[in-house]
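Supplementary material to the annual report.
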Amino acid sequence: MADVTLTIDGKKITVPAGTTVLQAAREKGIFIPTLCHDPKLSPWGGCRLCVVEIEGMRGLPASCVTTATEGMVVQTASPAVLEARRMLLELLLANHPQDCLTCSKNGACSLQDYAYYYGVRGDQFQGEKHAYPVEADNPFIVRDLNKCVLCGKCIRVCDEVQVNNAIDFAHRGFNTRVTPAMDLSLKESEACVFCGNCVQVCPVGALVEKASLWQGRQWELTKVRTTCTFCGVGCNLEVSVKDDRVVRVRGYDNPLVNNGWLCVKGRFGADFADSPERVARPLIRTGARGEGRFREATWDEALDYTARRLTEIKEQYGSRAIAALSSARCTNEENYLMQKFMRAVIGSNNVDHCART
Amino acid sequence: MAGLAIAFGSGAMTNSIAEIEHNDVLLIIGSNTTEAHPVIGQKMKQAARRGAKLIVVDPRRIELVDYACLWLPIRPGTNVALINALMYVIITEGLVDKEFIAERTEGYDNLWSVVQNYPPERVAGITGVPAEDIRAAARLYATTDRAGIFYTLGITEHTSGTNNVMNLANLAMITGHVGKEFSGVNPLRGQNNVQGACDMGALPDVFPGYQKVANPEVRERFAAAWNCRLDGTSGLRIPEMIDLAAEGYIRAMYIMGEDPALTDPDITHVRKALANLDFLVVQDLFISETAKFADVVLPGASFLEKDGTFTSTERRVQRVRQAISPRGESRPDWQIIGDLATRMGYPMEYNSPEQIFAEMAGLTPSYAGMSYERLAGDGLQWPCPAPDHPGTKFLHAGKFPRGKGLLQGIEYQPPAEVTDEEYPILLTTGRMLYHYGVTTRRSAALESYRPEEYAEINPAQAAELGVKTGDKVTVVSRRGRLVTRVQVTDRVPPGIMFMTYHYKESPVNILTNAAFDPVAKTAEYKVAAVRLEPAG
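Predicted assembly:
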């Protein structure tokens, strides 16, 4: 495709035809705020924060849905643009709980960031505010529609990525809200599969992970990239940790695999690691087989006992009287070592795992 | 895996996940993808939204059926007949890829000699799928360039599992739908590291990289690297281990991260075998049903608590990174195995999984070009034979590992157990979205949302028994009985019911049949004959 050259804030920029003004600006590091835009979702042009001034065009077009054309001259921060953005933010804040002190999103909230950046306090208009009950009837997601800025990203991710269409805009004007059909909760709707991809794209605190509430501020989290354990797809995870505890799991953006998206297990299932049922110390059997009665032991005792019994049985009955099951849930390194252990130490090829097919 | 290894010479997903959204036809057979592999399921639905045509072969009206242009509601256990009929249509209507058959395959005459006996009208009687739908599916698949096959355990967990897979390979080869981007034969791996566990040689007949233990040269190489003597006789597969443990020949078992007392078929037999051992060591996160039989339980660390690599279903080797410290006094499994080996007089002293990986890569040709440094980003797909090799997006371009692809005619054999007057309902089993094996039962969030089994039964069965959704019933097979709640739904047709294997409170493998595929030794989890009785 042919290239086009346009001017943004005095800089000449050449981009492939079809590129939006927003993309062109961002490629050159020019800041334009957005709430409803996500490069992985279709552009919508709903929040209007990304408005710019373009010579020869009437009004202030939204840069996320305006295609760059040859010779276009764009201003991203003219007085008219700044005034429009400030007004938009004032209007959003006029009906937004100002509870940043305790909001989970504090420190990673686009609305908060833009309000600060543009010096908007949200005290210009006093009027009616929403008083929706917070929805927390499911174990995964807390939905606080009072904080929703109607950017529609959750709707688009549910439609375009999860292809589930569990939610959409309903009602009109001031009463517009995002909801499952018939104004049910996500749980009641039975259409939602709790993939939580909507939580991941929410720019504000309207959608948050229930298990993350009060567990750590955004800036306290250490993020680790790893690979999910719940099926063979190999989704990349971003695991957020505070004080040696997993606070939150989100998709890591590996475009070759999950492109940042997850399912309910990958996103919300990691708490099994901290289950009180975890075996904390080595155990040695005290009851009958199958009863599951044990006493705790030290590692030295348990390993010495195991090594002694395996050696005895090998000597008495031969290597082939011993068999091992390795695990399709363990790492490659561990599977490698298990088969090496059986072959080199025990001396038998009796090693298998349940997912041979 | 065995089926693809016979047909092509190696068993793995031939294509990549990122190709799915660009496919024009997806033939999805025996895979409830949106629940078992949800993120691949997303991509299939996205492809359908874009205009790709989905052909879904499944006895249940799974979610993907809503996105399909053709749904073939097959009777469980009749896949071979159906695939033969698809090939019958393709061959008789001249839709084969003659060039591909001539240049890349052998055995076409043998294939036709069998397939010619499977006209759709006959197969409709076996499978329950209307002949016209079989014809439509065959035409659509054969005449679309970017057509891929996707399957999981609905194909393999049968006594005919290996045959099912080989027949899918036949179907792909006669249409030239393999060895290129966007079309191939794609087993979706159920567990996170099935591919890796196989690649690493956690199998009784091969070392890492599928190098045969029976091959003296291979053995010599590993013996030199490991400084030990090696047995050239293939070992036992799981069902053989269990049988021989029950008979007293296997005296000790070391079970890491598996729960055969819950997840193997006919668990009554498994439990007897485990109880009969002289010594059982179980390495796990929890006191699993298997661990209850253990002499020693060694607490392993979860994937969040250790470093390493997993190999995903698309052969992509990716890093696992430690996020939190091992809980309690638990230790990473690699440390435990190493420590045990050292105590048995074979020093296995590794400082890190990276060191283990490097040793493995040096002995495994398909991983030879990989290192932790190279895996730091988005991972690498095997084969990756050299440090400057970019990895392999799709397999079998130009040539199969075995040379020519093997076409082999496969006769339909009914499942090991069929319904009769006493056991009139066919039970099929699988996974559901909110659970995975057994670990998710320990996730407070997931468990609170789906704490118990809801066996799917058809309204016809419900009416006979006089039960409604939420009521309890007793399910009885020749091997055992259990009580479960039911969900009354037309997701399952009359005469068929579905249960998951996640719940130890209603352990479905008390019911399942320990009849095995003769090659892969995979059990027929997908077909058991049962009857329903009122609970109580």
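Chain A touches chain B through 115 residues (CB under 8 Å).
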